[in-house]
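Today's session is about reading a structure prediction critically. Students often jump straight to the picture, but the first step is always the sequence itself: look for stretches that repeat, for charged clusters, for runs of hydrophobic residues. Only then move on to the predicted structure, which in these notes is written as discrete structure tokens rather than atom positions. Here is the chain we will use throughout the hour.
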Amino acid sequence: MYRHHPQWLKAQQLVNEGKIGNLLNIHSFFSYYNADPANIRNMAEIGGGGLMDIGCYCISLARFIFNSEPQRVLGKMEYDPEFKTDRLCSGQLDFGDQSSTFTCATQLTSYQRVNIFGTEGRIEIEIPFNAPPDQPCRIWHQQDEKLEEITFELCDQYTIQGDLFSQAILNKTEVPTPLVDSVKNMRVLDAVINSAESDAWVSLSPAIPPD
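Below is the predicted structure for this chain, in token form.
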């Protein structure tokens, strides 16, 4: 849903138009505090944990902005002794000449932020994932010494996502985010887990071709 919010479309536009120079690095952080044993996010047997719940966004956004797949990944995970789920995960994604780093957590103070860095500027997204439908969102674009705050009108990113999906069905066109994209994202998540378990970089096999 986050990819359809105007703030992300603007960030992608700024990058593609060279407004931050050559894109080189992305850093993302996403955390909240949830120690409820009855919450599905804390149930290891059904896929709970920070990486699967919110780390997936950190990986997805890097693939979205770079418009490519990482060649290898490095992961570090710390587990809750009772839930057996990862409550703190950090990762590094190697895209060749570009890289992305992220941290996600389920037992840290609530916070989220994304920074996109280039040779001539940067983009900072204040509320990158849980964009509120009842208040304007803003990003900051810095190019050289000029810093611009960009504010977006109220919108609901889930409504936008639903409308785009409905239009694809009605018009018999491609859906906004095809299923193969989810498969590609899951490949990277699995590699981060494997890296954390082996305490080593994990290379990814050649990218899955589109349908």
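Discussion point for the tutorial: Helices lie at 6-16, 50-66, 157-171, 179-198.
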